Amino acid sequence: MVNRHFHPAVKRAKLRKIRFHDLRHTYAALLIDQGEHPKYIQSQMGHSSINVTMDTYGHLMNPVNREASNRLEIAVFGESGDILETQKEKHLAQKS
């Protein structure tokens, strides 16, 4: 199937040579880019556990992690970006 149909189709489309399996990775990457839940991606890829999915594709999810940390920062420090001060810092600020 791959040699008879897939490779000729790639050649006719004037695409660079890719492996058939690369389509699977592209599909997973597109799901991640769309913000799909990792458990949904796991089911689509047929992985036995979420660990397999995260070990394989977790590096593509970094922007999501940055957004989560930004939401946490706002929840802790508020929209204004206030920072928490230690007791020592408060004491030093009062002296000056």
Structure notes:
By secondary structure, the protein is an all-alpha fold. The protein has a domain at 21-81. 69% of the residues lie in helices and 0% in strands. It has helices at residues 2-12, 20-33, 38-45, 50-57, 62-77, 87-95. The longest helix has 16 residues, at 62-77. It is elongated. The model has no long low-confidence stretch (mean pLDDT 85).
Mean pLDDT: 85
How many β-strand stretches? 0
Uncertain segments of ≥5 residues (pLDDT<50)? none
Q: How large, in whole angstroms, is the Cα Rg? A: 23 Å
Structural class: mainly alpha
The shape, in one word, is elongated
Helix content: 55-70%
Span of the ends, CA to CA = 78 Å
Number of helices: 6
Largest sheet descriptor: none
Please trace the helix and strand order, writing H or E for each element: HHHHHH
Estimate the strand proportion. under 5%
Describe the protein's topology:
Blueprint (H helix, E strand, L loop, with lengths): L1 H11 L7 H14 L4 H8 L4 H8 L4 H16 L9 H9 L1
Helix pairs in contact: 2-3, 3-4
Search tags:
96 residues, mainly alpha, 6 helices
Task: Give the structure's gist in a few sentences.
By secondary structure, the protein is mainly α. It is 69% helix and 0% strand. Helix 2 runs antiparallel to helix 3 (38-45) and helix 3 crosses helix 4 (50-57).
